[in-house]
Design brief:
There is one protein chain. By secondary structure, the chain is of the alpha/beta class. A five-stranded parallel sheet has the order 2-1-3-4-5. The chain has a five-stranded mixed sheet with strand order 14-15-13-18-19, with helices on both faces. Strands 7-6-8-9 form a four-stranded parallel sheet, sandwiched between helices. α2 packs antiparallel against α13, α3 packs across α11 and α9 runs parallel beside α10. The longest helix is centred in the C-terminal third of the chain and has 38 residues.
Length: about 600
């Protein structure tokens, strides 16, 4: 969109009619007119002519080989083509001739037939054309160019979106994008947190099989709360029946599927439309050409951005595939399924094309400026009339307001401090609670990973605590918990932290400590706990013992992973007879 700065030098003469105005008397009107005029200029068409960018030869000739057919029959081809010419236009490329385009039309005639006929055709047609670069896009064109090293000798070759895993050509530059399935899968629970199952749809083509393997890796981190179901051997009719039976707690993740086990073939966008018409569940995808009406979209590989990469190669500019993925969503489908938390940088397609939706904020800003100008002029007239009285009242009110604000601020600060303390402190023992410990573990894990320092965690459990409660009463049980909390806080270093994690269970976080040293400290705690005697009435005492699980942090740990390992070590200790220290890395059944 053109900016005001880009055009300001041209139309300044439009203000000449204002010279005779009495500016001091009508300042508000003049400023309002200037704001409106500036807004108009912001949307005015550019007035400068396009020029070729510096350093680009005017006779540069580039051949582009597209795998798919014409724009009218291939959504992907249309997106790539759009990106190419938008990027050329953005660079003000005024050189008309120089771009040669050939299409294999593999979607309609088949890959074998398209490749067989293209070799002699290209050799004959471009025998006398001096090319500066040859660009092949997508699998069919890139494999053809790789299989014909004799074509276009000495001309730089670029294999864009070639579809082969960990492959680089010997005779050119390979530019491949690996879909980021971590984001493509991760966006589903973000925008639809109620989803509990994801149905992944693919086929048996080599490229899709590799993507299915990558999806399984990305899905592993969500399998605790989301079940994943994979369908890569179903017929098209079975897929339609499958999605028709899904409910709103299920989502579909659709890979570019174009063939089924019966040998039937269909363009992936056509299948996406069929499934969207049948499905009661939102359909997500990883490819921009499948973001069609009825398909939600997601984090996708963008055909338009790949087209921009091709355009930069045409212009002789550096090009890579680092920025060819992004969030794309179909706006009506997002509204239909009530999806939220859409990333602010996402592109929303198929939004209603009306003036209010397109220029809402500009209209609001312009009207607001006009209203504000009128209010300010009115306020100024009133203020000037009783300026002295208003200033005196304002001075008094300001002093009173400052006092009240200061008082309220102090009260709020004290209340917030008290609330924070209540929210992070266990009311019985006075030490940190589960929430405080969980936050601290996350902080310490990040610090330990950044500086490569050790970090250990103890999970402490009072043995036979239920028996103490049942035999001696809850008052003695509470005193046992308080005694254990006092022992932990008095026995630890200043950098350590103890928290009551729930019931009779405590957690001790020990920064700058490896597992072996932590196990020694845990043994000292176990011995000290065994020395505690709690009077229980009738001349009897309660003797406490504890079981402690010890775990050390790993490089990729989350708070829950570290806690789970310590808890498993604690469970092994309790299962082996209690009153012992068990390390997460030691074998089972080792006595203290």
């Amino acid at each position: 969109m053109p900016t005001f700065a880009a055009h300001a030098a041209v139309p300044l003469s439009r203000f000449h009619c204002l010279r005779g105005m009495r500016v001091h008397a009508r300042a508000g009107v003049v400023r309002a007119a200037a704001y409106v005029l500036a807004g108009w200029l912001a949307f005015a068409p550019p007035l400068h002519a396009a020029v070729a960018p510096e350093g680009v030869p005017t006779d540069r000739r580039v051949l582009v080989l597209y795998s798919l057919g014409a724009d009218s029959v291939s959504v992907w081809q249309r997106l790539v083509h759009k990106g190419v010419y938008e990027e050329l236009g953005r660079n003000n490329w005024a050189v008309g001739p120089g771009i040669f385009e050939e299409r294999f039309d593999a979607n309609r005639v088949g890959e074998g037939a398209a490749r067989a006929a293209m070799g002699p055709y290209l050799r004959s047609k471009y025998a006398d054309v001096r090319l500066h670069a040859v660009i092949a896009e997508n699998q069919v064109a890139t494999r053809f160019l790789d299989d014909h090293p004799d074509l276009f000798p000495g001309v730089p070759r670029y294999y864009v979106n070639h579809g082969r895993h960990d492959w680089q050509p010997d005779d050119g530059t390979g530019l491949e994008v690996q879909p980021d399935f971590t984001r493509a899968i991760g966006i589903i629970p973000q925008v639809a947190p109620w989803v509990r199952k994801v149905v992944v749809i693919g086929d048996q083509s080599p490229r899709v099989r590799q993507w299915l393997a990558d999806v399984r890796v990305a899905a592993a981190r969500h399998e605790r709360r989301i079940a994943f179901e994979y369908h890569d051997r179903d017929t098209f009719a079975q897929l339609e029946t499958l999605v028709a039976g899904l409910d709103r707690r299920t989502a579909v993740f659709l890979l570019p599927t174009g063939q089924d086990p019966t040998g039937a073939r269909t363009p992936p966008p056509a299948l996406a439309r069929r499934l969207a018409a049948a499905s009661n569940a939102p359909i997500f995808t990883s490819l921009q050409s499948l973001v069609l009406p009825g398909v939600v979209g997601g984090y996708v590989v963008s055909g338009e951005r790949i087209g921009r990469v091709i355009a930069r190669i045409m212009l002789g500019q550096p090009a890579d595939m680092a920025d060819v993925q992004g969030y794309h969503f179909d706006y009506p489908t997002v509204r239909r399924f009530g999806l939220g938390a859409i990333p602010p940088e996402a592109t929303l397609v198929n939004r209603p094309d009306n003036v209010w939706d397109l220029y809402r904020w500009q209209i609001i800003a312009g009207l607001t400026l006009i209203v504000v100008q009128g209010v300010l002029i009115t306020a100024l007239v009133v203020a000037l009339r009783d300026r002295r009285r208003t200033l005196a009242d304002l001075h008094d009110e300001r002093n009173n307001l400052e006092d009240r604000v200061l008082q309220r601020t102090l009260e709020l600060l004290m209340a917030n401090t008290k609330l924070e303390q209540l929210a992070t402190t266990d009311p019985l023992t006075g030490i940190a609670n589960r929430r405080k410990m969980t936050d601290t573990i996350a902080t310490e894990l990040e610090r330990a990973s950044r500086f490569q320092h050790p970090l250990a965690l103890l999970m402490v459990d009072i043995d036979h605590f239920k028996r103490i409660n049942d035999t001696f009463g809850h008052d003695v049980g509470d005193r046992a918990i308080v005694a254990m909390a006092n022992l932990l806080t008095s026995s630890l270093r200043t950098i350590d932290m103890a928290a009551r994690f729930g019931g009779e269970e405590f957690v001790v976080l020990m920064p700058e400590t490896d597992e072996a040293v932590a196990a020694i400290a845990a043994e000292r705690l176990r011995e000290a706990a065994s020395a505690i005697r709690l009077p229980a009435g009738a001349g009897s005492d309660v003797v406490l013992t504890v079981t402690i699980g010890v775990a050390a942090a790993r490089a990729d740990d989350s708070p829950s992973a570290l806690l789970v390992r310590a808890d498993k070590a604690l469970y092994r200790g309790k299962k082996s007879g209690r009153n012992r220290v068990v390390r997460a890395t030691q074998p089972c059944d080792i006595l203290p």
